[in-house]
Design goal:
The chain has two domains: 218 residues, Spore Coat Polysaccharide Biosynthesis Protein SpsA, Chain A, CATH 3.90.550; 96 residues, no CATH class. Helix content is 49%, strand content 17%. Helix 10 runs antiparallel to helix 11, helix 11 runs antiparallel to helix 12 and helix 12 packs antiparallel against helix 13. The longest helix has 28 residues.
């Protein structure tokens, strides 16, 4: 079993705070100063901040960046076990009835906590999230999170699994008791642990809501998101496979099946792009054909046809478009 080091830093004996802010840090030294500055600039001040260093290789730089804040931060170091384990450690240290999650490279606007806590209380919710301004790498910088990953209608099992509602973790404030009741983050999942947690909370009866108001800034890393698209959709399928093992109703099971079909189509689409870039035109045509069988897209049908008659033209057109979207 990995050993856990005791927390250090701020731990006031005063009254229990209203919110515990949870930050998991790994290779975040470059950004952590701006992230913490955004927390300590909040108009809502009744919070504690718990930061878990998840065995980060940049620990020396991270702790140097943390130095101005250490008296106000509960700081924990642990062996590298992934974001889920780091957040769980913070949740076990937390004292407040509400928890607010913040990724180590994102930032809150000054009224974030004030507005989110008021929204949660006024609506009687167990989990709320807000919209975010995207900054960092193109092509999404300057847009909002909900423009690229929308939320429409009620937040429930079907809307989460189908992708009609998309939760941004750095925009979540939730009741800690329910997070603990459903079993915290699944530490076996190295990715998408947050999606799995929201699903379990909703199935346990959590009331969830969102605001379209931009209350935070979400950093987009092109290399880690779009550059690893094939692996990302594969990880989505792993999480859906896990959700399918739950005691689902027939309606829920049908939703998961449709979601898995959509994810498999995305995997085929990404596979087709990779084959095309490598000049493997036959494999690309087969992959795009499988994606089209699910998506029923005239654009994909056109690509499949073009790969039959003029594959090098398709490759040339794709390469011409690439600089515009990078």
């Amino acid at each position: 079993m990995p050993t856990e080091q005791p927390a250090s830093g701020a731990r006031s004996p005063a009254a229990t705070p209203a919110v515990s802010v949870v930050v998991a840090a790994y290779n975040a030294a470059e950004f952590i100063g701006d992230t913490l500055a955004s927390v300590f600039a909040q108009t809502f001040e009744d919070f504690e901040l718990i930061l878990v260093n998840d065995g980060s290789p940049d620990t020396a730089e991270l702790e140097s960046a943390l130095a101005p804040y250490l008296e106000r931060v509960v700081y924990v170091r642990q062996e590298n076990r992934g974001a889920g384990a780091a957040r769980n450690r913070a949740l076990r240290e937390a004292r407040a009835p509400l928890v607010a999650f913040l990724d180590a490279d994102d930032q809150w606007l000054p009224t974030y906590l004030e507005e989110q806590v008021a929204f949660l209380d006024s609506g009687g919710y167990d989990l709320v999230y807000a919209d975010a301004e995207i900054f960092g790498d193109p092509p999404f910088a300057g847009r909002t999170f909900m423009e690229t990953a929308p939320s429409e209608g009620e937040v429930n099992f079907a809307s989460l699994v189908s992708g009609r509602c998309n939760v941004i973790t750095s925009g979540v404030v939730a009741r800690r008791s329910l997070v603990i009741e459903v079993g915290l983050f699944d530490e076996r999942l190295r990715n998408s642990q947050d999606f799995d947690l929201w699903i379990r909370m909703i199935r346990a009866g959590a009331g969830a809501g969102y605001r379209r108001k931009v209350l935070l800034r979400y950093r987009h890393h092109a290399a880690s998101l779009s550059g690893d698209a094939a692996n990302r959709v594969a990880r989505e399928l792993i999480v859906l496979d896990k959700i399918e093992t739950y005691d689902l109703t027939s309606v829920e099971r049908a939703e998961v099946s449709r979601a898995k079909e959509r994810v498999r189509a995305n995997m085929d689409l990404e596979s087709g792009k990779q084959h095309l870039a490598g000049g493997r035109f036959g494999e690309a045509r087969e992959a795009f054909g499988r994606a089209n069988a699910s998506r029923k897209s005239w654009k994909l049908r056109a690509v499949v046809l073009a790969l039959r008659v003029a594959p090098r033209l398709v490759l040339w057109l794709t390469e011409r478009r690439r600089p515009e979207s990078s």
